[in-house]
Amino acid sequence: MKLSDFPKGEILVSPSLLAADFGKLNEQIAEVTAAGAEMLHLDVMDGALVPNISFGAPVIKPLRKNSSLFFDVHLMIEHPLRYARMFREAGADLETFHIECADDIDATIAAIHGLGAQVGISMKPATPAEAVFPYLDKIDMVLVMTVEPGFGGQSFMAHQMPKVAAFRKEIDRRGLDVRLQVDGGVDENTVKECAAYGADIMVAGTAVFRHPEGMATAVARLKSAKELFGSKVQ
Ligand code: DX5
Ligand code: ZN
């Protein structure tokens, strides 16, 4: 599966499994699939690039057998190049790594593409968009963090919106087929800002898996931000 399989102009929803009940992952994934999500966001943390440890390839692999969702793997790890193959073999459709990692960026992009997966680059809130601009025409997605990576359930950083707009403008100016994802504190309210500033893939953990009115309502509300798309990008 490729990002280009999804219709252009749609807001895609990628629920973060970090907020699911880890005691029944397959059931939770079935529920979020029925709710209309296109993707599953899988947060891999190594306790080095970020101050927390989550799960790795051995957890992802059995989930792949039971799901046909697009697997959007967010590698918050120091050495994505070293582990690119492991996550591809576990079922990643897309591997997003951090520009702050210790590995060579071009080599990491080439390795992931060479494995047949798509490539995303993410950055922490303090890292400017310009750090990623040199790689934009070589990748498939940009991920702007709207919290400090490491934990689910944090508050949305609205001050990251100019960065989202900067990417939207640069992607459109160059005419690139690059999707723009936001991650952290995205819910039915903050999603409006994200869409207005030009993001088109919304990662949401708490706001989907723990929505009081259920996952289908959560996904539908996130998608309804479509009508605001790009309205704040000058
Ligand atoms: C944070 C992760 C996020 C997180 C989002 O480091 O990258 O994907 O799970 O969780 P919420 O949506 O609860 O902020
Ligand atoms: Zn994430």
Please supply descriptive tags for the structure shown above:
binds D-xylitol-5-phosphate; 8-stranded parallel β-sheet; 234 residues; binds zinc ion
What percent strand?
Answer: 15-25%
SSE pattern, N- to C-terminal: EHEHEHEHEEHEHEHH
Q: What oligomeric state is this?
A: single chain
Alpha-carbon Rg, integer: 16 Å
Distance between the termini: 33 Å
How many strand elements? Answer: 8
SS field, number of helical segments = 8
Briefly note the structural class of the backbone.
alpha/beta
Widest sheet: strand order? 1-8-7-6-5-4-3-2
What ligand species are in this complex?
A: D-xylitol-5-phosphate, zinc ion
Largest sheet: 8 strands, parallel
Mean pLDDT over all positions: 98
What are the segments in which pLDDT stays under 50 over at least 5 consecutive residues?
none
Determine the fraction of residues in helical runs and give it as a percent range: 25-40%
Shape: globular
